[in-house]
């Protein structure tokens, strides 16, 4: 009994001594986290002003994630700072920021940021998690950690590949609510490394802070409208690759199929091969395009283009089919007629040439010199009609999709 009481007293004395020594060494070398520090409670400012947590992002790299849905992986330094007056600054005030070991993060209160719209967040781990903590004389804690944020983007692909997608980065407070808690971007809140434009080869990007809304609307969240900071990344596809790889070749193949109009209609294998080959090439081109483009249940801009190209190629094929049919019909039927006219003409030969003309006009003899056969008429019509319709389509298509 006595021994126990004595031990208790000794322990009490030791505790008191320790706290006294902790208070005494407030200026230099003391514990940053005092023993009576309550990690569970936020450092609410005494004047009832909101507790400000400030963010900044330094973006080192943006990579398109190879997923069916468009997304980007943002390689960044994620920085958070807030003031916690309960901490002890372990230096003399003129020393400025002091770097401290990140193990302290297990002992102090931390804000609870949550990134909306995110598919995954990964810290970077080399020897240990890559992060740094500093504390300033005004008791501001500053944490910087390297991380990869896999951000989902909007997926409106109606105009693909002329679309631009917006990826919104929304950092919410998960639990702390307005007005006692607020989030801000730091002055240079969002810095993008200029080298990003070289790494993100398929896109033009613009990454901007969305001007401050104190709270964000959040459907059925608790608390209702959490404090937040917003930034938006707008990605616009670079067109050159699609132009050279898809639009130009497919347009050219449509033109190649028109070349068949200038080939004699009776070279059946030659013309058929030409038209069928360009049709098949267009179809296989479309299949390849579909495989590399996002999956949608509606027609994208590139699908419309390929569809019209294939349609023009099919028209060319049909036109040739009709020409062949007309030629065949002509071979069968009109043989008898000219014979009759010839007979008629031979009979009338003794009469004056003028009369011959009148008679033949009356009998409705086909004028063989100037009158075109139906298949020739069709060829002539198609030679004009298909290019003009393709041109019209282009006049409508390009302004509609490139805006
Ligand atoms: C956070 O930002 C606000 C205003 O932007 C500023 O007044 C405040 O001092 C900042 N807090 C910290 C800890 O940097
Ligand atoms: C931000 O505020 C503006 C009006 O002040 C509002 O139109 C906009 O929807 C708000 N944004 C969000 C994400 O709540």
UniProtKB/TrEMBL annotation:
Keywords: Cell membrane, Ion channel, Ion transport, Membrane, Signal, Transmembrane, Transmembrane helix, Transport. Residues 1-22 form the signal peptide. It holds the Pfam family Neur_chan_LBD. It is a multi-pass membrane protein. It is found in: Cell membrane; Membrane. Coiled coil: none annotated. The chain crosses the membrane at residues 239-261, 273-292, 304-327, 381-400. Residues 34-238 form the Neurotransmitter-gated ion-channel ligand-binding domain. GO terms for cellular component: plasma membrane. Residues 247-348 form the Neurotransmitter-gated ion-channel transmembrane domain. This is Uncharacterized protein. The lineage of its organism: Eukaryota, Metazoa, Ecdysozoa, Arthropoda, Crustacea.
């Amino acid at each position: 009994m006595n021994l126990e009481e004595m031990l208790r007293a000794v322990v009490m004395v030791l505790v008191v001594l320790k706290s006294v020594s902790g208070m005494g060494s407030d200026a230099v070398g003391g514990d940053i986290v005092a023993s009576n520090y309550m990690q569970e409670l936020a450092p609410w400012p005494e004047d009832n002003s909101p507790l400000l947590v400030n963010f900044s992002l330094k973006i080192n790299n943006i990579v398109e994630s190879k997923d069916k849905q468009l997304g980007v992986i943002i390689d960044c330094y994620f920085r958070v700072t807030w003031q916690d007056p309960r901490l002890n600054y372990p230096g003399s005030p003129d020393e400025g920021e002091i770097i401290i070991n990140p193990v302290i993060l297990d002992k102090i209160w931390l804000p609870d940021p949550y990134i909306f719209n995110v598919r995954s967040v990964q810290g970077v781990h080399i020897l240990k998690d890559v992060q740094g903590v500093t504390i300033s004389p005004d008791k501001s804690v500053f944490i910087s950690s390297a991380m990869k944020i896999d951000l989902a983007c909007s997926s409106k692909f109606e105009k693909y590949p002329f679309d631009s997608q917006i990826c919104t980065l929304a950092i919410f407070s998960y639990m702390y609510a307005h007005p006692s808690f607020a989030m801000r971007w730091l002055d240079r809140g969002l810095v993008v490394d200029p080298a990003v434009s070289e790494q993100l080869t398929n896109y033009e990007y613009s990454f901007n802070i969305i001007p401050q809304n104190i709270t964000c609307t959040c459907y059925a969240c608790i608390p209702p409208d959490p404090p937040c900071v917003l930034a938006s990344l707008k990605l616009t596809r670079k067109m050159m690759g699609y132009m050279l790889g898809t639009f130009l070749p497919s347009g050219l193949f449509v033109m190649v199929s028109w070349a068949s109009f200038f080939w004699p209609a009776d070279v059946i294998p030659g013309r058929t091969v030409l038209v069928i080959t360009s049709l098949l090439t267009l179809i296989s081109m479309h299949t390849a395009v579909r495989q590399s483009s996002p999956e949608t249940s509606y027609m994208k801009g590139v699908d419309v283009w390929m569809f019209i190209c294939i349609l023009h190629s099919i028209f060319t094929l049909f036109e040739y089919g009709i020409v062949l049919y007309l030629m065949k019909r002509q071979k069968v039927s009109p043989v008898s007629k000219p014979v009759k006219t010839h007979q008629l003409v031979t009979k009338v030969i003794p009469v004056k040439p003028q009369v011959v003309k009148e008679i033949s006009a009356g009998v409705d003899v086909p004028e063989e010199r100037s009158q075109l056969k139906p298949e020739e008429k069709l060829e002539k019509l198609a030679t004009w009609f298909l290019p003009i319709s393709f041109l019209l389509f282009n006049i409508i298509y390009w302004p509609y999709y490139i805006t």
